[in-house]
From TrEMBL:
Main location: endoplasmic reticulum
Pfam families named among the record's database cross-references: FIT
Subcellular location: Endoplasmic reticulum membrane
Keyword Lipid metabolism among UniProt keywords: yes
Listed name of the protein: Fat storage inducing transmembrane protein 2
Keywords of the record: Endoplasmic reticulum, Hydrolase, Lipid metabolism, Membrane, Transmembrane, Transmembrane helix
Cellular component terms (Gene Ontology): endoplasmic reticulum membrane
Organism this protein belongs to: Seriola lalandi dorsalis
Amino acid sequence: MAAVDVIVDNLLALRRIPAVRQHFHWIFLIISVVGSVLKDQDLVPETYFSSSRNVLNVYLVKISWMWTLLLLTPFLLLSNSSLSKSMSYRRLLSLVVASAVWYICTEMFFYIENLTGSCYESSTMDVINTEFTSKATCRHAGFHWDGYDISGHSFILAYSALLIVEETAPMASLKTASLSAGLRMVLNLLYVALNLIVIIWVWMFACTSVYFHDKSQKFLGTICGLLGWYLTYRVWYPKPWSPGLPPQRHPKEQKQHA
């Protein structure tokens, strides 16, 4: 597993770069704005990723929250197992909060699309069908619903990537912690998988920006993702009455620095 160790070391070195660590969130606003301009000017040619049926979108992005939790939950449980049960509970509580943010935002997007939309008998939107008043019933009947569709992809991809980056920050201190060989191997594999998922989320966020939605829909989705991250990890979690921030140092390191 020496190759995995090298990959982990390189990823940690990348994370230690101040510009990467402190300004990662800005990449989503930049991509959203630049991507929207490129889309409006029709400067990006159609590719495999311009179809919503591409493999990454169908099997990863559409269930992106499941993939995020599936990889992040065991990482948090194992990485905090050498600290304390209370720390493990606090990190799991942060996932509960994140899931609440995800649920509230996505439901709000669905509500706005239903509230602002109409059912049309075809994608040309020539004839309105007044019999169906919700997107679900309209599409189930085989018709076309058109409403203000805030980009759920822009929201969830930005929010998931920021969540993963925050919660995997303790990996730097775990590299020097006293862990069993088996536990270290599993943590390394999960860490690599989580970083790979972040890369995929950023790539698919860029594809969304240049191929789908209008600029206001993408901008609002992105802002919701950034606000969900900022209000928790920058405003609420540093306070004592919260799940708290991820541990930055292992207890043994803290003693050495005391």
